[in-house]
Amino acid sequence: EMLLVLFSTLSVYFLLKRKHLLAWFSLSLAFLSKGPVGFFLPLGVYFVWKLIESIRNENFWKAFFKILWDLIKFLLSPLGNLIFLVFGLGWYIAMFLTYDVEYIYKFFIEENIARFLGQTHQHPYPFWYYIPIVLVSIIFFIPIIFRIYKNFKKEYLPLLGWFGLVFTFYSLSY
User: Which of 37, 174, 171 is CA-nearest to residue 118?
Assistant: First the structure.
């Protein structure tokens, strides 16, 4: 999971800094380390981040469609797609050539989509399972959390959006 977090964080950072080729490279390594979640989650985080930043200055729908259009242009980049093909899909292409469609089906359908939807490898915990886990894990940081809350700045909102999206995504997976 550390590689996924590293490359996902780099992807978001490079997207925010508008260093698109480095963002593509980071996305491809995140995808290589964990599959589709390494591609879609950083893009979702970027989208939420930019949306939270933008709605302070413009109306929601205008900001929504502007960010969506920017993301579509990013995804249609020929050089970015080439980087992704070479670095992100290289392993999967090799596995396909070695094991045929069986590997692709098992990895992408069974281990990603079916697992997320709870059709395979269900864990017996409810959707709120991670709430007490997070609360226990931050117990030693409570004094700092109160200080942050007391001196809260609007600049922290995108970080909360990032946390909220990832937390919700993994909470919704069965």
Answer: 174
Cβ within 8 Å of residue 105, ≥6 positions away: none
Where b means 16+ CB within 10 Å and e means fewer, 132-162 reads: eeeeeeeeeeeeeeeeeeeeeeeeebbeebb
DSSP 15-44: HHTT-HHHHHHHHHHHHHHHSTHHHHHHHH
Q: Nearest CA to 42 among 65, 11, 6, 73?
A: 11
Backbone phi and psi for residue 132, each to the nearest 5 degrees, phi listed first: -65, -30
pLDDT in tens, 93-144: 988 899 888 888 887 887 777 777 766 666 677 888 888 999 999 999 988 9
Query: Tokens in use for 165?
Result: 């999206």
Q: Helices 60-75 and 37-54 meet at what angle, rounded to 10?
A: 140
Provide the CB-side half-sphere exposure for 70 (13 A, CA).
16
Instruction: Tell me the two tokens of residue 102.
Output: 């069986």
Cα torsion angle, 73, 109, 5, 159, sign: positive
d(CA 95, CA 115): 20
pTM for the complete prediction?
0.84
